[in-house]
Amino acid sequence: MNSKHDCLFCDIAAKKIPADIIHESEDLIVFHDINPEAPLHCLIIPRIHIATINDLNAKNSSIVGSMYEAAAEVAENFNVAKKGYRVVMNCNKDAGQSVFHIHLHLLAGRQLSWPPG
Ligand code: AMP
Ligand code: ZN
């Protein structure tokens, strides 16, 4: 598992690596996914490094509520709130997590199938 010293999303949050940023706050940053799976596909990440959902605890987990609030705000701003959207967070290998800094995917703009593959 990556440490925060070797983390793509920490580098994006620190502006060491460019991203197509949609929204920033003191705690969060939202940017377009580089390989979109839907007409709107963005990632909502905390500025603090948390590798996986398994690393959430009583001290850091309130950030997840803020991530969902940001997702709802972005959905509203991109006019998909009423039509619908999906937010999903993958955890570890079987779910396909490839970047070990928690992120909410926000997908919208097409009919999304269920269950996901
Ligand atoms: P996951 O597989 O759930 O860990 O999601 C990681 C996501 O990060 C994938 O959807 C990638 O397309 C996306 N991604 C990887 N590198 C970048 C990058 N430099 N900028 C934006 N999105 C990225
Ligand atoms: Zn990180």
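^ zinc ion complex. The chain has three helices and five strands. The chain has a mean pLDDT of 96.
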